[in-house]
Records
---
Amino acid sequence: MMILPHTTTSKDIQRSYRNVFDTAKAEGPVIVMTNNKPDVAILSIPQLKDLYEKSADFEMREALGAIKEYKEAKRKGKLIRAASVDDILA
């Protein structure tokens, strides 16, 4: 189940930025809306660090998966030497 993020406007931030920041720290990102469209997100430093860590973990899993696929293709003799993208698509 996805919980909808909190939203605010730039005017609300001007009026009561401390409340907006406290909400972001306590309850997660706050989306700032401009012309009824999401424009920017405000999140705490721990939330930002968590996103970076998740991103790095995901990238590492993807890289390890690509290496595994390469080794399997090499073992099966399915690799080709290509001089261009056209060689690959042919």
Note: The chain is about 60% helix and 15% strand.
---
Amino acid sequence: MMLRLQSFRELLHAIVSKDFSGNRFGRISVLQFSHNDKGNIYWVCKCDCGIVKLIRGSHLKSGSVVSCGCFNAERAANQLRKHGLSKTPTWNIWASMMQRCYDPNHKAYRIYGKRGITVCERWKDYSNFLSDMGERPLNLSIDRIDNNGNYELTNCRWITQKEQCRNTRKNVRLTVQGITKCLKEWSEIAGISPMTIKYRMKCGMRPSEAIFSQLRGRGHRNQIPIDVCLG
């Protein structure tokens, strides 16, 4: 009964509010009312490219959403043709960044754009991105310091592929004496395998003990001074 009442209230709210059904906003066609979330009305919308998604009514009305994301991807492609920079490594990195965040057809969109990762407004213009980050140094790629953060100057840097692999969400990160590193880095410092560290922690050892204890004979272990290992 409560569910029916809630649905009725949501529908009534949509009727009292402006009905966007059948309207177009940029490339977006509004199909029908979806739901009310704490006073925010959501509509089922279809982009001209075929993508169907839920969009908040206030975003449609303000013009902040004009497509499913394909518009920004196309704008990037148009800039590429306009500036003739498609062969430069820095341009290719910028274009790939834009596609990951805004092109639903890109293979990596699922773990970037769909997860809410965006590019700051300033960097949607390639010339601004180039001005802030400079040309890509040889053999380096762009990396977000906070993997849950967006692409913006305060959260991006140029790093090696090896360093980037260590900054993924899947990596296990351990903190010892206030220093945080991924499991692979600690294993290289201590000279033992990542699997050994994982096994020790599974058996109840603290991170510092699991990393810096060297086994000497059955049932015995000797603690290596952490300061020595960290140099």
Note: The chain has ten helices and ten strands.
